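Sorry, I am new here, but would you mind making up a protein's amino acid sequence and the tokens describing how it folds?
***
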Amino acid sequence: MTKAKQLTILALFAVTATAVSGLELLIPMDFVIPGIKLGLSNIVILLVIYRFGAKCGVAVTCFKAMLSSLLFGGFTTFLYSFSGAVLSGIAMGLVYRKESVTPVGASLLGAAVHITAQVLCALLLLKSVYVLCYYPFVLFSGTLCGALNGIIVKFIRDKYRLG
């Protein structure tokens, strides 16, 4: 595959992840736990990692975080999104090739790291330890969503023989 073709495909994945992130805002989840999302765009990110490698996955997640914040949020949204996305992308990129780690495991790790990074970011921005009271609830919901997303990635990866 030529560099130009790969770059074009990665750009399409980044735009797809951004669009999924935007569509996800239309799904009302605040009645469960305020501020949670299903993290469906992470399906796209994990597929990129399995198909093109960790560096490409992190690049796509950075682009998605920036574009999503620009389109759907603001500077604070960017700080939360970028901190979580970059660190979770790196974490998933570090484990995706290990035989003992399935896409479900990689997705669970990514969800846990993403949430932890966002809570730490909130801790720094809000300068309040009360943010930590929220952590177990978002970690639990993120674990459920991460498992579901990992199952979807495993199905797609196995069906289309990606990675």
